[in-house]
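Dear support,

I submitted the protein below through the web form. The confirmation email said the job was done, but the results page showed an empty box. After a refresh the structure appeared. I'm attaching both so you can tell me whether what I see now is the final result or a partial one.
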Amino acid sequence: MSRIAIGDVQGCLHELRDLLKKIDYSPDRHELWFVGDLVNRGPDSLGTLRFVRSLGAGATVVLGNHDLHLLAVAFGGTRELRADDTLDDLLAAPDRHVLLEWLVSRPLAVRHGGDLMVHAGLVPQWSTGDVLRLAAEVEAALRHDPAALFAAMYGNRPDRWSEDLQGSDRLRFVINVLTRLRYCRDDGQIDLKMKGAPGTQEHGWRPWFEVPARRSASERIIVGHWSTLGLVDRTDLLALDTGCVWGGALSAADLDGPGRWSMACAGGSARVK
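What the results page shows now:
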């Protein structure tokens, strides 16, 4: 069974279906790995969530920041939709409860062999074992009391990791790293505001995967999230967000072979932003 990793779909169901045709996808031969952000900003978040859920065990999904935003609106009670969100149809759907219960039960990190999939990135202090342990803490909080987690989830502090972090600060930091991180310093301090391509960042900051002595460097980290980074395919990193929702393409990669594919966004610059 080949594992096919797919970049940020963000409600672009038409492109996802076309990409799977291009791959000659078959549930008997392929397992799909989604890097997160199944929903939001694109035209069909509802259809995307229904389709991926229908794949059952044939789809492995990690949560992205847009997925968590949807869940915070649905479960948190105090969060409201933003002007550029495209989630109204999903929140009004008759099967909303089933879809959201499925989504909230997805992990933040998945490991298979020498591959680790998260939505955004890792701080240099974390080994892949640390990532799985910390992701499991967030997942347990999500399942125990999602409203409490979402009430404390938003914010950019703390910006440095310590094993001594506790409570909402600890969970918030883990969520921010796994679902929002792009740049950090060599000492692991994170910045969540810089979003441009490498080379545009302020002095002293690096893409998280370029930090020397990163403890996770011995494994391949599979991510999405960073559309201005684009496709990066190397032994220690597979970055798959090629900005379909922004008029780019939806990309996929065979994790067990040489196959690499992309499907141009049908909506182009007219895509909802």
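Response: this is the final, complete result; the empty box was a page-load delay. Confidence is low (pLDDT under 50) at residues 269-273.
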